[in-house]
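Help needed: design a sequence for this.
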């Protein structure tokens, strides 16, 4: 998955279409991400011993195909490319402005 925790994304499809948010959690096996403050739903909690019932808003996981990564440099929705340096470090780069995205540096 090319989108990682801490990236800023824009929602492309759904009730929150056009809104931007920060990724809090990624689930690569399910191909989903959780975005802070977006794609919310209300959960009703039943009262139990001494605790009153309540309604809580939670973030629901969203499929990666429904979000677009925003480049921190050019502020556009981008696709991600990978580049391997001579030292063997793999890094993500923006396909539009060719800047290195800061979250991924893996040595082989």
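Sure. Designed sequence:
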């Amino acid at each position: 998955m090319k989108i990682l925790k801490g990236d800023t994304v824009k929602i492309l499809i759904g009730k929150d279409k056009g809104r931007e948010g920060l990724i809090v959690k990624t689930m690569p096996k399910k191909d989903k991400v959780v975005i802070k403050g977006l794609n919310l739903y209300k959960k009703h909690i039943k009262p139990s011993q001494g605790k009153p019932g309540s309604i809580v808003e939670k973030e629901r996981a969203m499929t990666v195909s429904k979000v677009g990564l925003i480049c921190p440099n050019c502020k556009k929705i981008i696709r991600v490319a990978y580049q391997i340096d001579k030292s063997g470090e793999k890094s993500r780069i923006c396909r539009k402005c060719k800047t290195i995205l800061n979250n991924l540096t893996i040595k082989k």
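The first strand starts at residue 8 and ends at 11.
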